Amino acid sequence: MKKHILPAIKLTLILIVFFAVIYPFAVWAIAQAAPNGGKGEIVTFKGKTYYSNIGQAFTDDHYFWSRPSAANYNAAGSAGSNKGPSNPLYLEEVKGRIDTFLVHNPGITKAEIPADLITASASGLDPHVSLQAAQVQVKRIAKIRNIPEADLKTLVNEHTEKPLLGLFGPAKINVLKLNIALDELASK
Q1: What b/e readout covers 29-67, taking b as 16+ CB neighbours within 10 angstroms?
Q2: pLDDT tens digits, residue range 52-96?
Q3: How many other β-carbons are positioned within 10 Å of the β-carbon of residue 69?
Q4: Are 44 and 36 spatial neighbours (Cβ–Cβ below 8 Å)?
């Protein structure tokens, strides 16, 4: 037993140094080479500053709605709800989101609502929605803002981020950037 304890202690100390010092320093150093020093992309609009990589709450009818957040869009408390898909409280919450969406988007059926508009992301801070989630909201926004649907569809397409290398992940749209562009389009 003694011949196993000393190597185990050495290995533990080596791994502590690697994972508690060397690895975090390497990640920090790589982040410093990224734009804005790894602090994320900062967007300023009408005198306010936003981080485009953190989800924002958009629930007004004249904006594209963002993905629901289990953390109430609080970056300090990023977390999912940890409720399983059969949890009655979770199901009631999702049903409420569906009902709210249908009230604000007449003419849309329950089957047409993309999952990302009624379920929160794992972090609760996802700044993106799917292309389908943006497209299903075009009719509501066009009617409220009196903007032709074709113009809004073009705006959505212009702000669609393609999958990484054309292979990894779905096409997505940053809701903050899309809504800023929407405000700019409406002000013209």
Answers
A1: eeeeeeeeeeebbebeeeeeebbbbbbbebeeeebbbbb
A2: 888 888 888 899 999 988 888 877 777 777 788 888 998 999 999
A3: 22
A4: no
Cα angle 100, 101, 104; round to 5: 90
Q: How many CB atoms lie within 10 A of CB 107?
A: 9
Strand (E) or helix (H) holding 119: none
pTM: 0.78
pLDDT given for residue 179 in this prediction? 93
Supply the DSSP symbol for 86: T
* Secondary structure (3-state) at 96: helix
**Tens of pLDDT along 114-150?**
999 998 887 878 899 999 999 999 999 999 999 999 9
Q: What are phi and psi of 8, to 5 degrees?
A: -65, -40
Sign of the dihedral defined by the CA atoms of residues 19, 24, 163, 150, in that order: positive
